[in-house]
Amino acid sequence: MPMDSRELGLLLARQLFNLDDLHFGMWDHGLEVRLGNIPLAQQRFSDYLIDKIPSLDGGEPLRVLDVGCGTGQLLCRLLELGYRADGVSPSHTLNRVILKRLKGMATTNHEAQLFPCRFEDLDASVLAGRYDVVLFSESFQFIKIHRALEKLGGLLKPNGLVLICDVFSLASPKQDPIRSGHGLEKFFRLVGETPFIQVVDEDITRRVSPTIALLGDVVQNRVKPALDSTHHYLRGKHPVITRLAKALWGRRFNRAYDRHCGGGYTQQAFEATKSYRFFAYRHKGAGPEQKT
Fold first, then answer.
1. Which of 1, 14, 15, 215 is deepest in the core (most CB within 10 A)?
2. What is the torsional sign of CA 88, 93, 95, 98?
3. Ordered structural domains, the chain, with CATH
4. How confident is the model at residue 74 (pLDDT cuts 50, 70, 90)?
5. Side-chain half-sphere of 143: how many Cα atoms within 13 Å?
């Protein structure tokens, strides 16, 4: 299966910055915006998500499905807290990391299942009505909205919760310098046609957007100079190969270079064209209270 942008980003984050997450991170409460604080900002992000999951309250452990679970960091925290958590990940590379992390855990009350497939490809007939909570942490944007909503209806228990923490687009694709996230208006329209009702909507854009400033600084002051130097070296040492590569892939490379290294990937552009939201949706009917 080809590597997608999320998998590539997480692998680069691990290799360049020794990070276990690809979350934006939360930069409130006076946390200084610098590269060294990214792990702490990401820890705060995970704490924020966990606080949104209904507490156990001494009852039967809730079953949680972590969709697009990265390296399994959040999945393992949920297990340690007593949730009966499973994960979904289509990445063979990341799945090796997840399984190693699960194997190294102390004994918990639930042996987590890792489904090595896309969320859309889960067998809803086998997993019908299994989960109290399905969590999308920056993974919803990679799934077609209508496919996700259809699948959720089969996986959730009656009155189950869908938690979505992700970036949504406010601009049309042609006006969007940072092409990520479903259109927010389209999302509201499609979810409004389903049996789900909204119980929480929090805009946390400004709490996470400083991450974009950090990434922009890394791209402009580290990645871009490295790419320029490499291109200059190859053009001098291997001109024929360089010209051939340019003829074959030049247009695609130039588009990617302009998009990521052209200076438009800024915190200001992100805040103007994106809305980073936390949503909680429930099937119509009463159920455990959602924390806000």
1. 215
2. negative
3. 5-207+276-283 (3.40.50.150), 210-267 (no CATH)
4. very high
5. 26
